[in-house]
Amino acid sequence: MAGLLLAAGAGRRFGSPKALVSLHGKLFVDSAAELLRAAGCEPVVVVLGAMADEVRAKASLDGVTVVDNPDWESGMGSSLRTGLHAAGIVDAVVVLPVDTPGVTVAALHRLMELAEPKALARAVYDGKVGHPVLIGSDHFAGVMASAAGDQGARDYLKANTVRHVECADVADGADVDRPEDLRPRNGEA
């Protein structure tokens, strides 16, 4: 069961690559990679692109496989293809974008429990689809063929039966797209 961290984007809406965003004293890329490792993913593949040299210099990225996506500017689809290729021979991959700091080990475990080559599953939060996404190895070729632009696996998931796994009780699946998304929400300190 591999973990795939997509951390190649430039973060245009944020103003800098989200891999380099710091929250609670840790870079997003380090926190997300540690989360995948803590959940038991092996290997953990981190896909870098924008400012990859700076991410490597500032991040620890201990115990993970780091790969560069030379086509990162084309969108998430190319990073997904790069990461699936780098994952090697595994039954399934759990895919996590770097900009979802509210995802927890408990949410990852809910998806990982379903891991097998035929599996397709995604986290939902109060019924709204989100991340992480579980992709069984039987689907790798189809996902790679359809992943284009910033759509990632979206078109492939729409065209196939995907199990929705409710995770709102154990995680927050919100994406951090802009700096103001890091501000505490109602009731949070």
Shape: globular
Number of strands: 9
What is the ordering of alpha helices and beta strands? EEEHEHEHEHEEHHE
Instruction: Find the structural class using helix and strand composition.
Output: alpha/beta
Distance between the termini: 35 Å
Descriptive report:
The protein has 189 residues and is an alpha/beta fold. Helix content is 27%, strand content 23%. The chain has 6 helices and 9 strands; from the N terminus they run βββαβαβαβαββααβ. Strands 5-4-1-6-8-7-9 form a 7-stranded mixed sheet, sandwiched between helices. Strands 2-3 form a two-stranded antiparallel ribbon. Strand 7 and strand 8 form a beta hairpin. The model has no long low-confidence stretch (mean pLDDT 93).
